[in-house]
């Protein structure tokens, strides 16, 4: 895409953000008609550091009941939780790509054609976000923020859909999945793994290895390495070093920044850096947990040492529930299931937010928040309004995070697995429409919805539909309102090429 097109698109972005039109009420459910950005706009804009771990289950961190139970304490992350708010009911999408799409756009991924993990598409059917989508990085960039990302993107494998074409000033990482790091080693004959064999195993001439890119806005991405197991082991250190450098650089300029740190751990293959291998004495998984805690600590130390701790909002969370593939299975704490399902173990992940003097310390809450809400909330924090020409599903949670209100601005949401509406959550109730406990199980459409009371049945074992048929009404309202929205604003189909123009 040439620069003139990008410049025209930037002008359109500013027009959309500043336009006075509003979506119908059903498209802004739970959100005030106008964002109140006066208190923040009148002061120095805060920095935003968003640390997104990969497939970190609910039961892994010490503060969520894991830590030493999983072989390694997590003191730095636990301390971060004591300095801010910790959520018990933070919800994500069922797969990697959908969650990252929801985070970037504030829209449920069924709208964006990003509702499932896909491989490299054909040239005329690329995977990932269309250029029409407006990311949180673009909103913040338009407000004068420096923007950087490090780690897995998973929202497009072509140059035009890389992060540096979606609002980020710089990026280092991979376009797809760490699973592909196993390809070059699948023919290895000197390991404990059964060798596939050079004759029938992976061949770079048939399928290219996944590249590791370095990119800056306005320049073509440069391949700096090929992803293999060796590079997979060192990715966390590289991601952290680059993020720390970005924080230090921008702290000296006084320019506000948005740092999106997409950690690689604990995605399969769950392998520690050689520096941490054997450190805990409790195996690779525990070593990886110790490494994650250390890397997180380095990010927090960089913020403190730069003297910007009080003006920096920090979020630590995960894109999905725990791994389900042997031998890298994760732990979901009290919840049942795996990712790639609509079970609570798939939807609920750790979430910690710290903003000294703004977010109350040592606060724990079980109110529903969804990953799409971060888009709208961070836009408010950065002094931006969300686009008005499209449905935005995220609701502004800033007052809730700041302790100005006890309740979240969200009561529920539809839970899709791929393109299947599999469940609905409303308050502490849940309605399953499909049943699937494990990602490798076939989803089964239920003849009658299964109703779960999530306060009395954390394992989702008892259907209480017959005694609580009333609860279906508010959840069916969520479905009908969302389906009406999809009718009014038809979803983008997967593989839609750029330029995309919405149907009139």
Overall description:
There is one protein chain. It is built from 11 helices and 16 strands. Residues 1-8 and 14-42 have low confidence and may be disordered. The strands form 3 sheets. A 10-stranded mixed beta sheet has the order 7-6-5-4-8-1-9-10-2-11, with helices on both faces. It starts with a helix and ends in a 16-residue tail after the last helix. The chain is of the alpha/beta class and 504 residues long. The protein has helices spanning 3-18, 38-41, 75-82, 96-105, 136-142, 229-253, 284-305, 344-347, 372-381, 398-401, 472-488; strands spanning 47-53, 85-87, 90-91, 146-151, 170-173, 211-216, 222-226, 257-262, 312-318, 351-354, 363-365, 369-370, 412-417, 420-426, 429-435, 444-453. A hairpin with a 2-residue loop joins strand 13 and strand 14 (420-426).
Mean pLDDT: 91
Q: What distance separates the N and C termini?
A: 25 Å
Poorly predicted segments: 1-8, 14-42
Q: Outline, from the CA principal axes?
A: globular
Q: State Rg.
A: 22 Å
Say how many strands there are: 16
Give a short account of the largest sheet: 10 strands, mixed
Helix content: 25-40%
Number of helices: 11
**β-sheet strand percentage:** 15-25%
Task: Kindly report the spatial arrangement of strands forming the biggest sheet.
Answer: 7-6-5-4-8-1-9-10-2-11
- What order do the helices and strands follow? HHEHEEHHEEEEHEHEHEEEHHEEEEH
Structural class: alpha/beta
